[in-house]
Structure formats: structure tokens, C-alpha cells
Fold Glycerol operon regulatory protein.
Amino acid sequence: MTPTGAARPATGSVTVRALTLLEAFTREQPNLTLSEISRRTGLPLTTVHRLAGDLTEWGALERDSSGRFSIGLRLWQVAALAPRGTLLRELALPVMEDLSQITQENVQLGVREGTEVVFVERLRGQRAVKTLTRVGSPFPIHASGLGLVLLAFAPRSVQEEVLARPLERFTERTLTSPAELRRVLAEVRRSEIAVSDRQVTMEAVSVAAPIFERPGVAIAALSIVAAADTAQVTALSQLVRAAARAIGRSLRPGGLTSSDG
Amino acid sequence: MTPTGAARPATGSVTVRALTLLEAFTREQPNLTLSEISRRTGLPLTTVHRLAGDLTEWGALERDSSGRFSIGLRLWQVAALAPRGTLLRELALPVMEDLSQITQENVQLGVREGTEVVFVERLRGQRAVKTLTRVGSPFPIHASGLGLVLLAFAPRSVQEEVLARPLERFTERTLTSPAELRRVLAEVRRSEIAVSDRQVTMEAVSVAAPIFERPGVAIAALSIVAAADTAQVTALSQLVRAAARAIGRSLRPGGLTSSDG
């Protein structure tokens, strides 16, 4: 689950409860009063007051002159060390920039968090087709090229969890049959390429490849999103595969999550 | 203070102590064992074990197959909502890209955290001079163009704190006299431009301007860094001032930290 600002029962340790406060903040509402945080987290105002004080003391929250809280710069600095966030982005960015200049299309980098795709970076191409994604935001895993790659290389339990749920339909071409999705995932594992042809919007095709940290272990996926009516899928597949391999090589030796790191 | 991995006495609430664990992680060492976290934070191993469990439960930390911990993707997602981090970066980026293409020089965006400069974004220009900065990392406030702007518009107490400390010398041109620095800061407030001429390295000049959220309230600073032997300081000053104003306009109405947000 990702922060959505939705209230949910706050349980667990003091630390987990304090971190729950952070979930109240959203892109639409990055500055909140204590009452707003209380309403969004379902925690009593007195608890929110105390925990917000602790979070502010360390710098996870900041308070402005009007008394509203927001996510603090110190948390942002620490979070920049997330191997699957900023570090991955920095390694991938030069390759993504090349790919974007060559194709003039949107180029996207994503990782899997549970059963969701999280976009780590997106470069807008010169002749970019409209996409629905935003850096840091989640996206259903069964529809996009990135998602299909990440799902194909996810643990079996994650695949089964996705296949057991209703598969939301975005267009007439979205895969909504578990049996069909299962076949496509097997094919993605074999070919190491996923093509989402008008499965998210009727305007866009995305072509995605896994970024392997070690053989068979995909830490992330890279995609090119192009206009459905003009996309050269074969050429884009070759380009995205080469770029994903280049990023994979830059992860090694050691890898972002390896014990030799 | 920013996370440096240095041990410091852990005090305060459970929440603050848990967050202290996050300070153990560095760019050089983004994957740590519990013993390493214990050593770096000065907290007992049993405490680290319990708090790391809580942080992992929420997603502030992640554990890899070898048992090492790293900063979690969920924290990275939440931290992307820091108004002075990612949100500022997204508003500033289009203007910074224009500036980088026009000048072909390095373009930097920074904010002040206590008495330090934190770089929020840096674009490398085509004919870029070497710089020492890295996104998310701190930098002394009295030497760079960005730092001089941020210090000039900081509260008086922050200025006095910096002026009372030894001012580190980076080159023969670094300002190390408090009286001289005080004069320069007054001039930066008047002109709304800071020029750091070979004060960080003998190769580079930086020209910086404040980004005003409201009149007189500088939330950030923007700089161009150019080669000292060829830099056209007057032209760069005009460009950086215009760009900083454009970013400032995009912050309003409301502003990143305003109560109307």
C-alpha cells in the first residue's frame, strides 16, 4: 500500500504509529494542520500532537509559520539513500536520457512494491504521447509494459495475489482474464520483453524490459511509451532491451541490494 | 545536521530514537547489518533490532536476502512530498533545463537546512566545469554562490551562528573574515545576486539568485556555475535572476509552505 491520505486503523508500536502520520500527506495536500492529520490517520488529536512533535524534532516533518506541517527536508535527504529510489535513478538516468533523445518518446523506470508499480523516473520525449504516470506514484501492475515485466519476474505468491483479484479494465484491450494474463507473463519471462498495446490508454503502446541485478532477479523495469498509431514495436523492443542491459551492468558488481554493497 | 553515519548520543522519545537509525545510512554505505547500525548510532544491538523491526514493518527500511537493511522505497515515496525537496525540484526543473541549454553550464538549486546548503537538483551543462556537489548532500554556506544567497536571506540568528564559527578556507579567495563576509551578505541582500569567484575551487565561478516565495522570503536559491577563465558574470547574473524570478512566480499563489496551500 502507498500513502493515499485515507484513514486506516492505527495499530502497532509507537514508531509505526508515528510513521503513520506521514501517510496523511499527499501530493494534493502536502501541508496539513494537526486536526487534518488526526482526521486522515484516525489517530486522536492528542496523540497526533505528541507524535508530530517527535517527528518535527528529528526533521521528518517541518512546521511553517501558519502552523501547518509538511514532510521535512531531512527525511527527503535520508530517503535519497533508498537503493531502489534515488540510487537506482542516478545509475539509470544517463542511459534513459540517451534512449529519450534517440527515440524522442517517453522513457520510464519503475520498481515493484508489493503488487504495485512505483515509477522512479520518467523522461518526457520530444514527441511524447500523454501518459498517466507520475514519479513516486503507484500504477496497476497488470496493464502497463513496466507492470507486466515486474509482475512476470515477481515471486509466484505476488503473481497469484494479482491474478486472484479483479483485473481492472482501462481500455477494451486491457487483459482482464487471469488465464490470459498468466500466458502473457510466461511469454514475458521467456522473451524478456513486455508489450502493452493500448492496454492503458487507446493512444499509447509501451515496450518494457527487465533490469537484472543478477541473472533472473529483476530489480526494476525500463519502458518506452510511444503513440499507438506510429510505434515501431520491434525497433523499440531492441532499444529498450539494450538500455535495460546497460543499466543492469552498471548495477554490478555488488548490486544495489547485495550483501557485498 | 545531516546524516553522516557518525555516532551521537541517542536521546529523546522512542520515535526520535527510531528515526536515529536512519542516520546510520550513507551514500557510501547504503546497506547495513544490525551490528553496523548499532555501531554507527551508538544504540544497543537489542534496541536496534527492535526499532529496525518497526521501521521495516512500515517500510522505512527494507531488508535484503542477505539480512542487510537499507532505506525503504516507501519512505522514498513519502519523502517525495517534501515541499522543499521534490515539489520544489519539479517546479524548478523546466526553468533549470532552459537555463542549462542556453548557457551550457551547470545549473544548481539549493535550500538552507540550519546552517547548511542542501542541493535539491543539479543539471550538468554541455561544457560543464567540475563541481563538488551532489543532490541531497550538504555544502558549506559561506563559500558557494548558492550558500551566500541562502545565508544573506537567512534569519539573523543563523547568520550570527555561521559568522561565529571558523570559516573554512577552500581556496585563497574563500571569504574567511567575518567582517568581510558580513559586508558581502549585505551586498547580496541589496543586489539579490551573489557571485562566488573561485571561492570554492580555483576553476569555478558561481552566480546565484534567491527564489522568493514572498517578497523578502527566499525559500531557495538558483545558481549557474561556470569556468572561471571564460565566465561572463554580468550576462550570467541577468540570466540567473530572470530564471529565479520565473521559479518564484510558479510557487505563487500559495507558495510551497503557505497556509493557503
User: Anything to note?
Assistant: The radius of gyration of chain B is 20 Å.
